[in-house]
Amino acid sequence: GDSVTQMEGPVTLSEEAFLTINCTYTATGYPSLFWYVQYPGEGLQLLLKATKADDKGSNKGFEATYRKETTSFHLEKGSVQVSDSAVYFCALTPTGGGNKLTFGTGTQLKVEL
Amino acid sequence: DADVTQTPRNRITKTGKRIMLECSQTKGHDRMYWYRQDPGLGLRLIYYSFDVKDINKGEISDGYSVSRQAQAKFSLSLESAIPNQTALYFCATSDFRDRDDNEQFFGPGTRLTVL
Fold first, then answer.
1. N or C: which end of chain B has fewer CB within 10 A?
2. What mean pLDDT value characterizes chain A?
3. Cβ-nearest to B104 among A94, A97, A101
4. What is the pLDDT of residue A97?
């Protein structure tokens, strides 16, 4: 079945450091790929998405590129802030999957001054 | 006011009790979902509903049931709670546009503890 694998956390960075959170997936066809973010005490919210190979999703300084050849969708940000501290989830919806999401296990990011 | 609300926000109960978690939305979306979140496991889909008359099992439906009372309301029940159902439960909604990339909107979650 479909699955999403994320790098384990927690990840601790200093403010202004470069961030990469790795995400790879297993799915047939051409799934849509997402990054959701969960701030402390809140529900998840969509950060960015990409729907086809080589698409780049971006939002709030975060970027991720849909790489079909490596089945990856790594999240990057050039300069993190303390306010980026949260749990980040990679997820996919399979082709024709009716918008049902399969999530990775989540990666906790902590940014320190 | 929040678009997706969940009640209660926190609940402690005992093994064997029946529990209902409620979700309401004002977004006008047709599709609603229930997930549970466990440390190290991410979110897993329990049930989903594409409209009032269409309810489907998700990845981990055993021990749970749902009711879609109206377009805006989707309840999750634990008929006889057990300790391994202790988790954070999320309701989510999405719009129907016959696409696979629709954003899902999540409620704030219900933290359930079964003793």
1. N
2. 93
3. A101
4. 65
**Which of B43, B101, B107 is nearest residue A103 as measured by Cβ atoms?**
B43
Terminal C-alpha separation, chain A = 41
Which residues make Cβ contacts (< 8 Å) with residue A13, sequence separation at least 6?
A19, A80, A109, A110, A111, A112
Interface touch B42/A89, C-beta < 8 Å: yes
d(CA A11, CA A81): 13
Decide: helix, strand or coil at residue A14: strand
Neighbours of A35 (CB within 10 A): 25
How far is the alpha carbon of A80 from chain B, nearest alpha carbon, in Å?
23
Contact assessment for residue A6 and residue A102, using Cβ atoms and an 8 Å cutoff? no
Q: Do B108 and A43 touch (CB under 8 A)?
A: yes
Q: How far is B70 from chain A (nearest CA, A)?
A: 20
Of A4, A49, A106, the CB nearest to B101: A49
Residues of A with Cβ-Cβ distance to B94 under 8 angstroms: 99
Question: What is the torsional sign of CA A99, A100, A106, A108?
Answer: positive
Dist. CA A4–CA A26, nearest whole Å: 6
